[in-house]
Give the backbone structure.
Amino acid sequence: MSLSFDFIFRLLIFPGFIFIFTLSMLCDWMERKIKARMQNRMGPTYTGPIGILQPMADLIKLLAKEDIVPYGTKSLLYKAAPLISFSIFMLTLLIIPIDGAEIIPGFSFEGDLVLVLAMMVIANFFLFFAGWASSNPLSTIGSARILTQLIGYDIPMFILALTPAFLARSLSISAIANAQKIPFILLMPWSFIIFVITLQAELEKDPFDIPHAETEIVAGYETEYTGRRLAFLKMSKDLQMLLGAALITELFLGGANGPVITVGFSSLWKTLWFTLKVLLIVVLMVYLTCVFARLRIDQVVVFNWKTLLPLSLISLVASVILKLFMVGG
């Protein structure tokens, strides 16, 4: 791997770090605007055209604020957890073929889907550590709830991710996306629907936002954080939402593939299709967030083990039957 200009450009600018960071800011702006409209508010309006630069302004403001470390925290873990979580989410997004090709040559491989899912779990563990290291009762409760959802909802998410992998006969994200002559959302809409619900829990969105239920535990695991560390926590959540939407795009919507363009700007064309699909998924997730009320912790646990887990197993079996039918046909 040579440090050529093309490599540095792809890694740092497009479709690498700067593009991913900008897209996550756009997703954050869309979430705030949609929530505001559905709640009869304006949302961001002043910073940039129709408030589109507000997420960046908020980030700069947080980075400039005083960084306070409360007495009694587990100092090293408290300081490092937000940055590590942000770094893992960003590194994981570099595995996603945003423009249909590897961002880092040789970074993708057969089985990279498993790596992406595993890194999402590890990043969530550091969000748990962020709350646990705060030594605040409310933060501890919030971090414990993260762990509760992590243990429960990652299992059906892993199972559901196997359904498109089984149809594509590959655990490579690129191979799964390229195998979709017909998007898998049309072949197995049941898997798509259940995966979206599971992802809502993974992202701690309503009705599964109990780790930071403001009416119960203030801000949950974020309660003690200020300044730049709070900024990194917020950026981690934005990247996590983008990663979830990107994963759905690759597994069920054909990734960056769209109408074929034969000459010229094929990379930009594929990036455009990938971005549009990701934004569509973000709109869907935000809509679900707005129309459902928060569940209690016991309801979240029961819903996972008694509903989502059996449905994910049934979905996998249905996908196996569908594959056998396709092969037989």
Summary: The chain is about 70% helix and 0% strand.
